[in-house]
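Q: Start with the shorter request: fold the first protein.
A: Done. Sequence, then structure:
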Amino acid sequence: MILNPLRVLIVGCGNIAGVFDQGLSTGDLPLTHAGGYSRDAHFYVAACVEPDDNRLGAFVDAWQVPNGFHSIDEALDSGHQFDVISICSPTYCHLHNVKKALRFKPKVIFCEKPVTLSTLETEALVIECEKLGIHLAVNYTRRWDPDISKLKDDMQAGRWGELRSVLGTYNKGILNNGSHMVDLLHLLVGPMDIVNIGKPTCDYFPDDPTVPVWLSGPQEVPVHLACGHAKDYTIFELQFIFSLGVLTMEAGGLYWRKRCVIDSDTFKGYRMLDEGVRRVGKYPNAMIRAIDNIYRTISLGEPLASTGLTALATQRVCEQIKQQSFVK
């Protein structure tokens, strides 16, 4: 048993806050904030905020939270103090909630992405957090995915040879889902410039189009993002074309497919890709690794894998894509 665990406030009691994990068996990996904190003895969910009475009551009961509030202002007035604050409210509420969260002077604010609806607002919050010495973590989950960490190491070590191009497919908005892809590409490929964009489609949010885009990374590596439609099914996939083979992230990282170079049996002297091997990915480990990263940041001073600054860089690119798409 950990003496004096870190006190957590969860703002917003929806799916990513804890609903996805309600009824979770002990053998399942948590996907949510409440699920992650409940699996780590260094944390204690001391309170939650949710304006909807039914949702608040269900969350309090499911996660045995001792204090439930209808607003973050009400939580402030209560006099309770928190070490970590998770912002899981709708995006349009983030600006207000993060500003209020700063008044608690927590050690870490763990915010769902995007931090706000505009780069100017996000930049202001990043600056304010730095000024107050508060760590801002942003839940771009794949930065905590063990498979992504290994791929980054493999790419830096040249184990896949030269990166020739990247092909991606996403839907549900350039800021909502596309930002996950852009952030992941920033991590693995590096900063990218916009070369061209295609016709946008509003397949989920009316103010957040899904946009096909051609980007260019370091050494002018071409990155092409194609679009699915959210009404059909969810899709989030990336294919990395290397000189030594092809690696594909499928189903958002739940699966990976590796294809290696072989000599062709049909066409003598030609090389081709084999049929590949598909394996289960380690993406479900992301949340427990994020929570552990937060603990180590607080206790050992280790850097966060996903910060306000990295999220801001991603949002700038997404906002540029979105603005240029309106011209189409």
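Q: Next, the second protein, separately.
A: Sequence, then structure:
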Amino acid sequence: MTVNPPVLKSVMEKGQGTAARMLDRLPGIAQEALVKALDYPHVYPDLDPLVKCLMAIQIKQGHSSFISEDLAHSRTLFDARMKAIAAKPTTVKVIEELRLPLQSGSIFARHYHPAPQKKLPMVIFYHGGAFMVGGLDSHDEFCRLLAVHAKVQVLSVAYPLTPEFSPLQMVKVCEDALAWAHQHSKQLKIYKNRIAVAGDSAGGNLATVVAQRSAGKSYAARAQLLLYPAVDFKSRHPSFYAYKDGLVLSEQDIDLVTFMYAQTHQIELDDPLISPTYGELRNLPPSYVITARHDVLHDEGSIYAHKLRQNGVSVHYHEYTDQAHGFINLTPISRRAKKYVIEISKNFRKFWDKNS
């Protein structure tokens, strides 16, 4: 099957969300034909063809990396992209905007409660975005899906970003948010001892660090949900070299994050504050770890799950072989990504219940 120029022009000119949803409805053979017509220069046979289309269009439009040194522009662009692909949001019974008066400073948060009359577990969620971009809105739909399908409350935390703030400042805010939820568990109708931490990518890093730092404390995280987490700034594993070009997260992105998050703040790359794979892994809570095969971070997430098991932690590990980094943000435009997020949400709750 070939894609004629008018169809190609139509896809390129439509709004991102509309075009992507149109692409998602095409059969796989048509998506692959579009990838070929767009001259996508990379060969990833097992990658979801919709993701290949999106990457091919992005490259055609002159975008080869996730972030740039112009952080103001990167933040605006990321927010605009997330807004552009938005669809009708998943309904959650109660969503409340909060301002948390933490020891480390006042921050915004968003509280999702799918059944406000009931006591439910709570998940403290830290969004991804390379520690530099993203916020409550960029991960709103994921939090909605998690709340509804895991049957949990979700507290999404707008932690401060780097390089304006150091890793220690950011981690303290994230840990204080966990402690705040514990202190207000009665008012929030949280099941006793049922507060977990979760995050994707950079947020997965923060969740792991918070889980390690809170271990043994009264407000310790009781489970963690880690979605393609960044856990090792020091090492470069085979997945880094296999998937560093033509996908969501590039070698250039990793180098910039390493500079902005670690080197700017003079943190050693193997410091557990930023690389939790080198931290204390015993006595950590049950851990549900997700990786995407087509991801520079794949191997470090897989290795972290293995190391947790070696240290006696209950672990569920699952790799989505046809996905790339960032797939949880594609739920408004990808039926496959949405299906996976719903699956993750339901299975995480079953895993947590079983290990409580």
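Q: Describe the second briefly.
A: The longest helix spans residues 335-354. The beta strands are 94-102, 105-113, 120-126, 153-157, 190-200, 224-227, 287-294, 315-324.
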